[in-house]
Design brief:
single chain; 246 residues; globular; alpha/beta; 25% helix; 5-stranded mixed sheet; 6 helices
Length: 246
């Protein structure tokens, strides 16, 4: 739901899995109604930005109808002067999701398909509607275990990377955190599994092994809100900062 942070208001959502059929039956009408409700809430509550924490699509090659639903949703936000930060989840194809990123950037739709350093898109700056407040969103798209070394290399860290996935994710978040000044409202938007969180319905066990888990104490303490995606159950995670799956 929307969270009031200073005078900046956000709507946090995730895991739409657009394009996923139910026992062979298309659910496009259902998806359209659901996204219509999300957009209506964003407009009604006058949010400054919508945060989408990954798994927008259910597969790397979504049907065109699913892609149209997403772009229609984003167009609604643009028309209402609502910004958006959207990251890739494990079901999204980073290259496909990022194909229109440069076009959308000028419309305040910030698509982040892959891990980047803070000064190269890893931290997104957002201004509130009244222009009196600034928020910074550190973004952590899904990082497969096999690619965590690549992501760490991109961050150009100077110290030795540890072997554990959770520790490496913690180090990436710390590197991103260096792009968050104390003067702004600071958030993290991430698609990851936090150990001890409750699994919802519809997740595929293949993606939920503990090998991908991050200890909640490894999440940063210096931000006001951590917006997670990956688990399909609304819940608050006991972490150093206010942390939720939507």
């Amino acid at each position: 739901g929307p969270d009031r942070l200073g005078v900046v208001r956000f709507l946090h959502t995730a895991d739409w899995h657009l394009g996923k059929p139910l026992r062979g039956r298309s659910r496009m009408d259902e998806y359209a109604r659901a996204l219509g409700q999300v957009a209506a809430i964003a407009v009604d509550r006058k949010v400054d930005a919508v945060l989408i924490a990954g798994d927008v699509f259910d597969s790397p090659a979504p049907p065109p109808e699913a892609e149209k639903l997403v772009y229609d949703f984003l167009a609604r936000l643009v028309s209402e002067r609502i910004a958006c930060v959207l990251i890739a989840g494990n079901h999204d194809h980073p290259k496909k999701l990022g194909a229109l990123a440069s076009l959308l950037e000028g419309l305040r739709i910030h698509v982040r398909p892959e891990v980047r350093p803070p000064d190269q898109g890893g931290v997104v700056s957002l201004a509130s509607r009244d222009g009196k407040e600034e928020a910074r969103v550190a973004v952590l798209p899904f990082v497969p275990e096999r690619r965590v070394v690549d992501a760490c290399t991109v961050m150009d860290a100077e110290h030795k990377w540890f072997d554990a996935y959770g520790k490496r994710v913690e180090d990436i978040l710390a590197a991103l955190g260096r792009g968050l000044p104390a003067t702004s409202v600071n958030l993290v938007l991430a698609h990851l599994l936090v150990d001890g969180a409750r699994v919802g319905t519809g997740e595929r066990e293949l993606h939920l092994g503990q090998v991908y888990g991050v200890n909640p104490q490894q999440l940063p303490s210096t931000v006001q809100y951590i917006a997670l995606g990956h688990l399909h159950r609304p819940q608050e995670v006991l972490a150093p900062a206010k942390t939720r799956y939507p």
